[in-house]
């Protein structure tokens, strides 16, 4: 096996280093984040309206308050509805073309059971009844962009994801990201510091810098993505 000339090897490594030096080290931000799910209690009046993480948490808050209102309104000798439990409304009760409405696979529509005083063939009595309850909702955190690609409006299956803004390497931006301190980027709380160690006199050749980032396992350097282990050149040609 012929060994390439030394000049060829030097040219190859110089090219790899120059490409690496030009690489923009983008912040390792997530592509998507989960939306916030919540239930807003409109039935109790407002604004402001009480907000809960789930319909079940909202029901636990709502049930004793509404039950007390019903007992008061119907009087001590009346027969107010007796509230029972909350449940996910099945497709047969939704009228959504035989489907269960969901957001990211989470059921949206909920109903409650109650005992309701009604006339029956055997006289007035409490019988099982149901009623609608507040739905599950979703919204993207402030500063993110909603993305509902993939929603199926025909089957009432909705998809919502949230995209955070991309934060490029501040040294690569035409207008560097605002920074304070030594420096700290207040938008993300990230500590980043660049320490240039070498730059060729021409300014267009080899350069080397150490870079510290609090969100990227500490120190790295400007050639971290070269893809060539310069400390073991013999591995390029294991037979020589």
Any overview of this molecule?
With 240 residues, the chain is α+β, with helices and mostly antiparallel strands. It has helices at 6-21, 55-74, 91-94, and strands at 36-40, 51-52, 82-88, 102-103, 106-107, 110-120, 123-132, 137-139, 145-147, 157-158, 161-163, 184-185, 190-199, 207-213, 218-221. The radius of gyration is 32 Å and the shape is elongated.
Low-confidence stretches: 11-29, 225-240
Radius of gyration: 32 Å
Order of helices and strands: HEEHEHEEEEEEEEEEEE
Helix content: 10-25%
Cα(first) to Cα(last) distance is 9 Å
Globally, the shape reads: elongated
Number of strands: 15
What is the SS-derived class?
alpha+beta
Largest sheet: 4 strands, antiparallel
Mean pLDDT: 76
Strand content: 25-35%
Strand order of the largest sheet: 12-13-14-15
The count of helical stretches stands at: 3
List the helices and strands and how they pair.
Elements: H1 6-21, E1 36-40, E2 51-52, H2 55-74, E3 82-88, H3 91-94, E4 102-103, E5 106-107, E6 110-120, E7 123-132, E8 137-139, E9 145-147, E10 157-158, E11 161-163, E12 184-185, E13 190-199, E14 207-213, E15 218-221
Provide a short characterization of the protein structure:
The protein has 240 residues and is an alpha+beta fold.
List keywords for this structure.
alpha+beta; three-stranded antiparallel β-sheet; 3 helices; four-stranded antiparallel β-sheet; 240 residues; elongated
């Amino acid at each position: 096996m012929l060994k390439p000339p030394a000049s060829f090897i030097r040219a190859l490594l110089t090219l790899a280093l120059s490409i690496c030096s030009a690489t923009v080290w983008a912040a390792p931000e997530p592509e998507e984040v989960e939306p916030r799910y919540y239930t807003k209690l409109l039935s109790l009046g407002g604004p402001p309206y009480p907000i809960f993480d789930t319909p079940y948490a909202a029901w636990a808050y709502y049930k004793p308050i509404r039950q007390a209102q019903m007992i008061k309104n119907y009087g001590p000798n009346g027969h107010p509805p007796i509230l029972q439990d909350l449940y996910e409304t099945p497709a047969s009760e939704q009228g959504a073309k035989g489907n269960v409405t969901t957001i990211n696979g989470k059921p949206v529509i909920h109903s409650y059971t109650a005992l309701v005083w009604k006339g029956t063939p055997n006289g007035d009595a409490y019988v099982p009844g149901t009623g609608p309850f507040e739905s599950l909702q979703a919204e993207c955190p402030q500063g993110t962009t909603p993305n509902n690609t993939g929603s199926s409006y025909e089957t009432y299956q909705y998809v919502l994801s949230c995209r955070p803004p991309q934060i490029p390497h501040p040294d690569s931006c035409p207008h560097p990201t605002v920074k304070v301190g030594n420096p700290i980027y207040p938008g993300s709380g990230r500590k980043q510091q660049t320490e240039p160690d070498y730059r060729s006199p021409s300014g267009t050749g080899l350069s080397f810098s150490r870079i510290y980032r609090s969100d990227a396992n500490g120190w790295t350097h400007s050639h971290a993505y070269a893809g060539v282990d310069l400390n073991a050149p013999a591995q390029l040609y294991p037979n020589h």
